[in-house]
Design goal:
heterodimer, A: 244 residues, mainly beta, Immunoglobulin-like, 2 domains, 2 helices, B: 296 residues, mainly alpha, Cytochrome Bc1 Complex, Chain D, domain 2, two-stranded antiparallel ribbon, 2 strands, 3% strand
């Protein structure tokens, strides 16, 4: 009885996933859209990432008892893979991107996860907290751009804060209670991607055409490359940063 | 002598700038500002006009806030300590004393009240000697420096329910709120501005800033009635580390917290008398955070 029930669940999951995949692929091919993919690497010795003294807050110290926290300005994986690099099309003139995946910025173990959150202009994102200590979430844009600073407290169990930004800008975000908590909202126009732990990225939903792809790293700066995408095809752009 | 001092100020100023490259700074030209000289304000039944405030601004305000409203008046450099904040940069359109949610523009009344009240623990004087019309004109003048008012409306003021009767229970409940949302991380468990995070605080322009010390007898910048204090922690002081708690403190709890804060203050109050009878101890900074009380 139980077995048959499990089987039914498994079967419907497969069917559902299949439908989902079909829908997704239709979305992409319908517009003849392609993508831009590549890898971002650091060429040289990874800079030393300082350990973080969290002794201001015993909760944070405990959260890192077995896994000491380090600064995350430059996160380098094996083979020089650079994580948290934002890639976007700096000469994008197309429409705003349809809202896709839900964007979540989590305060977890007194660190920001992810450390860098990229988003489109006006795209909604959620700030949540997983911690049993109070944070205040305080982005600091330049008000002259049209992005306005705000500062909200999130005690344990607080409801998510949902926001968006009006203008293209790289916005630092910090917690004043835990001054080591420092992250970025990178607001761009058009499709974007962020490199994973292997330094890989894929910018989806790129219509055929010629573009400038820009890579942004918080400490190492920006680099740009020209890339051409054929209908339904994939452009490629790899980037190499030198340590400062 | 004079030059050495000035050089020091310069040096110090540029060190701060270098340390915080992300800091926003004003960048508008006189021409751009002039385009908004038609700005108005509405305070009660008085309409203020920016164009009528050029003279009073030059007479009373320019020395600190500067001809471009960017807070760089000739006296401005002498203020920068964690206790004394620099004059506001009006071009940024970001204000501390608001009845409106964090991230939104203040109402004209908010600006009018700030100008009337002046700021304790600050060089911003009280301007209640100016006529209501003059102050309303100055509000319009302050607004004309920022393009924000051309594109946005002030936020909707937060609702403050009628103040309940102070009781010992409410003061005790207020202590629980103070512990749960951890005001003490900055303000200290006795409100003496010595919480564990107090020493590292900076404002949005990267300048050091101290939390409010409840015990030394000065009044909050944004007013010292019970309503003012309620409003301060619900809306936050934008441009500073002082956050908004509107989403996480319910109206009833907010009043409890106001009553508890009164027990820290030097001024005599009913709350202080009641607290004496209670024998309340400061919250324990090492206790685990109390569970959230029924958040929606």
């Amino acid at each position: 009885m139980r077995n048959r029930y499990n089987f039914a669940v498994a079967l419907s999951t497969v069917v559902l996933l299949g439908c989902g995949a079909l829908l997704l692929s239709q979305n992409v091919s319908a517009a003849g859209e392609g993508k831009i993919a590549g890898t971002v690497k650091l060429d040289g010795t990874a800079p030393h990432m300082r350990g973080i003294d969290m002794s201001k807050d015993p909760y944070c110290v405990k959260a890192h008892a077995t896994d000491p926290a380090h600064m995350e300005n430059v996160v380098v994986g094996s083979g020089g893979a650079l994580e948290n690099v934002v890639l976007y099309i700096s000469d994008w003139s197309g429409p705003a991107q349809p809202e896709t995946a839900e964007l979540v910025f989590d305060q977890k173990n007194c660190m920001y996860t992810p450390h860098v959150l990229a988003m489109d202009v006006n795209q909604k994102f959620k700030v949540v907290t997983s911690d049993q200590t109070t944070h205040n979430i305080h982005p600091n844009p330049n008000p002259m751009t049209g992005n306005i600073p705000w500062n909200q407290s999130q005690p344990p169990g607080a409801a998510p804060v949902e926001k968006s930004w009006k203008a293209v800008e790289v916005i630092p975000v910090q917690c004043n209670i835990h001054p080591w908590m420092h992250g970025w909202f990178v607001v761009v126009k058009g499709p974007y991607a962020t490199t994973d732990a292997s330094g890989n990225y894929t910018i989806n939903n790129v219509p055929p055409g010629s573009y400038t792809v820009t890579a942004w790293q918080e400490d190492l700066g920006t680099q740009a490359q020209k890339v051409t995408v054929a209908a339904g095809g994939a452009g490629s752009a790899n980037f190499t940063f030198k340590p400062k | 002598m004079r030059t050495t001092l000035q050089n020091w100020t310069l040096l110090f100023g540029s060190a701060v700038l270098l340390a915080f490259p992300a800091a926003a700074s004003a960048q508008l030209s006189t021409y751009d500002i002039e385009t908004r000289i038609g700005a108005e304000s509405h305070v009660g039944n008085v309409t203020g006009h920016a164009k009528d405030a050029a003279l009073p601004y030059r007479r009373y305000c320019v020395g600190c806030h500067g001809p471009l409203g960017d807070g760089n008046g000739e006296n401005a450099d002498w203020f920068l300590t964690p206790m004394y904040q620099k004059p506001r940069d009006f071009q940024l359109g970001v204000f501390k004393c608001r009845s409106t949610p964090t991230g939104t523009l203040p109402t004209d009344q908010d600006l009018f009240d700030a100008i009337t009240r002046g700021f304790d623990r600050s060089n911003m004087p009280q301007w209640n000697t100016l006529s209501k019309q003059e102050r309303a004109d100055l509000v319009a003048w302050v607004k004309h420096y920022s393009p924000r008012w051309a594109n946005e409306k002030p936020g909707a003021p937060i609702q403050i329910p009628p103040e309940p009767e102070v009781t010992a229970e409410r003061i005790k409940a207020g202590r629980d709120v103070f512990a749960r949302v951890q005001c003490w991380k900055c303000h200290g468990v006795q409100g003496m501005a010595n919480g564990p995070s107090a020493s590292t605080l900076t404002d949005d322009l990267g300048r050091p800033i101290a939390p409010f010390n409840f015990t030394e007898g000065s009044r909050p910048k944004c007013g010292d009635t019970d309503q003012d204090i309620y409003r301060i922690f619900m809306t936050g002081l934008d441009g500073t580390p002082m956050p908004s708690f509107a989403d996480n403190i319910k109206p009833d709890e907010a009043w409890d917290l106001v009553f508890y804060l009164r027990t820290f203050m030097r001024q005599h109050s009913k709350e202080k008398d009641l607290a004496k009878g209670l024998g309340l101890k400061p919250v324990d900074p090492n206790a685990p955070a109390p569970a959230a009380s029924g958040q929606q």
